[in-house]
Amino acid sequence: MLFRNRFLLLLALAALLAFVSLSLQFFHLIPVSTAKNGVSSKSRKRIMPDPVTEPPVTDPVYEALLYCNIPSVAERSMEGHAPHHFKLVSVHVFIRHGDRYPLYVIPKTKRPEIDCTLVANRKPYHPKLEAFVSHMSKGSGASFESPLNSLPLYPNHPLCEMGELTQTGVVQHLQNGQLLRDIYLKKHKLLPNDWSADQIYLETTGKSRTLQSGLALLYGFLPDFDWKKIYFRHQPSALFCSGSCYCPVRNQYLEKEQRRQYLLRLKNSQLEKTYGEMAKIVDVPTKQLRAANPIDSMLCHFCHNVSFPCTRNGCVDMEHFKVIKTHQIEDERERREKKLYLGYSLLGAHPILNQTIGRMQRATEGRKEELFALYSAHDVTLSPVLSALGLSEARFPRFAARLIFELWQDREKPSEHSVRILYNGVDVTFHTSFCQDHHKHSPKPMCPLENLVRFVKRDMFVALGGSSTNYYDACHREGF
Ligand SMILES: *[C@@H]1O[C@H](CO)[C@@H](O)[C@H](O)[C@H]1NC(C)=O
Ligand SMILES: *[C@@H]1O[C@H](CO)[C@@H](O)[C@H](O)[C@H]1NC(C)=O
Asked: Name one GO biological process term (predicted).
């Protein structure tokens, strides 16, 4: 319990730092009166982060700001923290793509005017932005598995296309890449200067936003990399389950989870009222408005400081936004309690976790391949992995979220290997279900690799509650 609290506190502190650096007035969407206790944003800036001033975790505007992940000053992170006698062996990075244009439009409204070209005189900016564009224009199809080779390598539409990565999204991942470069390459020398193609493993789903996010991170990590040494594999499934995607029981968990979600929505009369009001404003049936998933588009307005849309009948406003966002937070809370999503996640995340421990085990045998692995993915990829690992307190993956597995070797006991798990720079190793108790008996600030291996090979299935002890049986359990 103590450690769970400490975890929350760490997350809260990180969040507060991000928040304080933002200044509430940045967003004209937020009435200044929302500042709590009459504290103006100016005096807020000056005070030291204090957990007491942390807004309640359910503040929808605060949560939405974290989700936007607007690039600001260099963040603090705990990647690469280890005692001197530990050697970094390999690193496995899972990212969500950066800030993107909405996937859905609010019916009968003008879509937000956001420019997806990359230009220096627009915020947010990164010093490597122009060099990134110029390097991307030298790329060739040979570096990408089909059908990735038909995708543009950087965003380039004056009015963003649906789902397109924005400049904010590129900058977020250039920053991620640079941060990982400083820690893993400059400090820990994970790769030699003349690294070879087989030391890096790259995989992405077939969307331009994931490919471009992966490229931006890679460029920040290895500026001006040699295109001939780069090969991005294509992953058709958002679960990254490759050849092991068929799993009927996982789908049954998902159906039950969706049913739970539906029932919770029906219970929320304020939410229904809000959808009704918004439907009236845009003049479509409530059902159609709801099906258009308006929160996705509203988050884009919110993150980009663009006013919510108006029609002759009125405007979509901050109150609507807060109600829908609050419901999302409630939904996540119930999702944790009911555990259906956990069942889905344990089965959904198994293949990619299995692949990752396979890579780690090969590295412990001294193989020098795939020492840096990057999976460029989606919220629906990271979320099940977090849940499967037991990180249920972790926030929903924000834009450009990163989840990292580090593999370390103890130089004093070279046969011993350990892992660290980091989510958005926060060390969450001892919050995972496979390492919760470990720190109580060991002075090492890491988790033995065996714990993770045992979890992935067996304990994940035991956690499902049936008698299965392997993936195939757990996926085909009768009478579930
Ligand atoms: C947000 O929009 C408002 C109104 O359009 C503007 O006054 C303000 O400067 C904008 N903030 C930023 C940081 O762009
Ligand atoms: C797990 O990985 C091993 C190789 O490391 C592989 O042989 C096995 O088929 C994988 N299992 C699943 C269910 O993906």
From this structure: glycosaminoglycan biosynthetic process
Nearest CA to ligand 2 atom 5: 358
Distance 300 CA to ligand 1 centre (A): 15
Ligand nearest to the CA of 359: 2
Q: Which two tokens stand for residue 220?
A: 């920040």
**pLDDT tens readout for residues 394-407:** 999 999 999 999 99
Ligand showing the shortest atom-to-Cα distance for residue 26: 1
Q: What is the pLDDT of residue 154?
A: 98
State how far the alpha carbon of 400 is from the alpha carbons of 166, 223, 294, 335, 344, in Å: 12, 19, 21, 23, 23
Q: Which residues line ligand 2 (CB under 6 A)?
A: 244, 351, 354, 358, 471
Q: What is the pLDDT of residue 41?
A: 34
Q: What is the pTM of this model?
A: 0.89
Give the pLDDT of residue 57.
Answer: 56
Predicted confidence (pLDDT) per residue in 93-120, tens digit: 999 999 999 999 999 999 999 999 999 9
pLDDT for 368 equals 94
User: Residue 186, Cα to own-chain centre: how many angstroms?
Assistant: 25
Low-confidence ranges of the chain (pLDDT < 70): 1-57, 74, 440-441, 479-480
Give residue ranges with CB within 6 A of ligand 1. 26, 28, 305
